[in-house]
Every structure is written in structure tokens, then in C-alpha cells.
Amino acid sequence: MDYRKLAERLLPGNYPAPESYETLYPPRNLPPKTEVTRLAPSPTGFIHLGNLFSAIADERLAHRSGGVVYLRIEDTDLKRKVDGAVEAVISALKYFDVKFDEGAEIGGDETYAPWYQRQRAEIYRTFAKKLIEEGRAYPCFCTEEELSALREEQTKNKEITGYYGKYAKCRNLSEEEIYKNLDAGKPFVIRLRSLGDPENKFKFHDEIKGDVTVTENDQDVVILKSDGIPTYHFAHAIDDHFMRTTLVIRGEDWLASLPIHIELFRALGFALPRYGHHCSLMKQDGETRRKLSKRKDPELSLEFYRKEGYFPRAVKVYMLTLLNSNFEEWYLKHPDADLNEFPFKADKMSKSGALFDLDKLNDISKNELARLDERGMFAFLKTWADEFGTDAQKAYFAQEDKLLRALALCMGVGGKKRRKDFQTASQAVSLLRYFFERPETYEECRVPDQIRRAVLVDFDKTYDASDDAQTWFGKVKEIAARHGFAAEMKDYKADPAAYCGSVAEVAEILRIAVTGKANTPDLYTIMQILGEDETRARIGLGTK
Q1: 426 and 525 share one domain
Q2: How many domains, in total, are found in the chain?
Q3: N or C: which terminus of the chain carries fewer CB neighbours within 10 A?
Q4: φ, ψ at 215 (rounded to 5°)
Q5: 294 catalytic, yes or no?
């Protein structure tokens, strides 16, 4: 068969010489042993925890070696493309402090641009034409109905599904049959003519999993679709070569495609980059573990963490805990260190499923937020409120001095031990509500209503905002004694039957009236922050 003639019929026109791209996209001017890594999402509008998991590994491995990490957008499937998706990817990863050196909507070294695959169509067609000329690719005219019937037959026969061997119906069409189909205007795709034998197996070194056994590829995969746009398999091989990627970090679900990719690189005459396949993020679901699911688990989406207001450093700390087995021990020794100082390594990444535990992330988030001072917390909460808060919540930040005092109290700033009440921005802003808005609901009070009202009336008569904390609490004790409560806890513990309760119950009455909550930080300080007029107003409402 005249393959050159066929190549011109299938992909007519003049294309650059394939070898010219080696000059157009030269090897990067980087020191030896530096890594070039990439994140290559599809612009679907959904960026998830797995993307962040890979992106942190990509960024750390590149930058620890003095190399480059870039963002490539694999937009060959227009049906899945969502407007604004690329900006959403960049924004989300920037929020979690993942920095790219170059890429889509980022810029950088234009030598390796463009970073959108649809803008690189000529390169893919050039190499598809080259493979056709070499007899390594051919046109396939099978319809979707024929391919569906083929898969059904394979499934019925309990065979591997795909286009291979006797099922590759267009692989051995004669020259006459091919041109007859082309003359009839039949749509076609271009497939790789595989040379692999599934009986042959070989060892492949995975940068994360170590040596794995790989079966040679015998699938005649599509490399160009009927619209001339490449498939992921074909495009990624060409792009990784000409963007000079040295290390590809991706999920273990791509291990099944490794034989295809190895054969594609060989067929194209390109050196294979190193691959590392990381474990999937798992979730405990009852007695079993399963992969995090877009349909079932809202916490898979990175937007979940932004809307809830998770502290970016906390999320990154937890991701690093899952990514490298020795990170947790290192971080305990270096809690104040720049996370970039951690000696991240691919071979320390987990080889089996990493269990994602939202409760553990929440604990880490509490610890990380507790390390901020009140001004740092103010800035973090305001950033969240500006984007996700209600109008009422945004108004809190206009009263900066009041909010800073509230934060200092709630965080235990200046005390012997920092409080760890704050978990996320949304939860923290909600907890701070009573400093700015009167309670709409009240937690249950253990004291009978009649006694509760009497205590509040008595407190209102004696309250003086100029009292210091000791004087204020002395008055609370006196009120307790007048209403049958033990003014001293030791007296109540010695003979609880002699009292209707202790001074703790009296403090709870006041606390619920002022804040709506039975448990808060120091009540005296809360009243000082609220001011006398507002405190009296809330006490008055509590008597009704």
C-alpha cells in the first residue's frame, strides 16, 4: 500500500516537517536532575481534591529540584468545556498556595506555548500524518453502532473490550476498500496500528509504586477523532514531549493506560517521561472504604472548602500528610516552618489508597487557626466574608475594633492557653454573631423560668459596666445567694441538697440571656465588648 498517498488523502495539505518541532520546542535550559511537571485538567468547571492532591505533588517535586511546573488545559472535548473553568482552576489552586511557573492564562516562557490543546491542532495532525506514512496508523470507518455491537460481543464472550486483534475490523482493509469508503464520504477516525502482544509482559519503574508489571499494548486506540481533534492519549504524548515534561504525576486509575502511552511514545520516536501513579483518595463508608465520589461527597469539590472557609494552610498541611508518609513527623518538629522547606519526595508517596478523613482535617484546621493572632484571623475571615458572607456578616467587619476584641477573647489571645474553637471561616463568623446581632433563639436553661426572670431583674438593678471583673463576679455571687443558689462552689459540692443550684447556674442564666448560648468565653469580657446599653437591653429581653 502507498502509505504516503493515503496520508495525503486523509490529511491533505502541507504540514511542517515533524523534526522541525524539535527546534521550535527545544530542550529547556535547566540544570541536570531538575524536574518539569504539569497539571493538565479538562476545563469542565469542576476542580476537585484529586486535582489539588496532584498539583501539590507536581509543584513540590518541580520546585524542590529547581525546575518548572506548568498548567496545560486539555480541551479537546468541547462537549465538556465550561466557560470560566480555567480561571476557576487557577483561582482555586492559588487559594491553596499552589504556584505555577507558566501555563494557560498565566503566561511564562512562551517558547512552550500555547498551553491549550485545541490551539496545537497542527502539531497533532503533523504527527498523525507521519504515523500514517509509516504504516503505524490507519483510518477506521466503524460506526458507533458497530462499535457498540463489538463491545456487546466481547462482554458476552467474557473477553477484554476494545479494538484489537480480530475485532479491529478496519485494520487490514485493502487499499481499494479504504478508497471506496473515502470516495463514499464515510466519516473516519485515525487509529494507531499497535504492534504489541498481550502475552508479553515487562517491568516498568513507577516513581511512586516502584517496579510494576506491564502488559504490551494491543489496542488500536483512536489518535485523531473524526473532527481532526486528537484524543487525550495522542495529544498528551506529543505535548509532554515538546513541553519537555520529565515527570508525570497522576492517579493510579491511569495505570491501565500506561501500555498505550508507552507504545505511543515509541511509535512517535520520543523519549518516555518518568511516571508516578499516586493512590486514590478514599473515604470510610460504614465498614468499607471507597473512592471519593463527585455524586455522593460534596467534600470532593475544592469549592466546598472555599465556601466553608477552610484555612488554606490547614488544607495544604493535611494534603501533605496524605501525600508523604514522613510529613507529619517532620511537621511536629517544625510547626512554624515554611511548608516549602519539607523535603518532599515521590517515593514517599502512599502506594495504596489514602484515607481522607474530614474530622482529621477539622482538627488540623483548628490547630492552624489557633496559631493566628487576632489581626491575622480578622484578615482571613474578612476575605471569606467578602466573597461568601451575608450582608449582615460583611457588616461585622466595619466595626473593626469590636471584632478584634471579640476575636482576641474567643481565641484566648494573651491567655495561658489558646482556645481552639474556630474550625472554618463560616463556622467562626457564625460563632461571632452574638457580638453583633441579638439572639433569635436561646439554648435551654436548666433553671425554672420564674427564678430565671428574677435573677435577670436583680442583675439589671446591680449591673455597672465600670465594675472590674472581680467586683462584677462578686455581685453575681450575691445575686446567687439571694435566690437560693450557692455562692461558692465548695459549699454546693459539700451539701447540694441545701441549694437550688450553684453560682454556675446563675452565670448560665446571664450567659444565655446575653448570647443565646450556654457555653461561651468569659462572660464579663463579652459584656464589656457589647457595652452597657446593649447588655442591659439583652438582659431586659430575657425577662419577658
Answers
A1: no
A2: 3
A3: C
A4: -95, 140
A5: yes
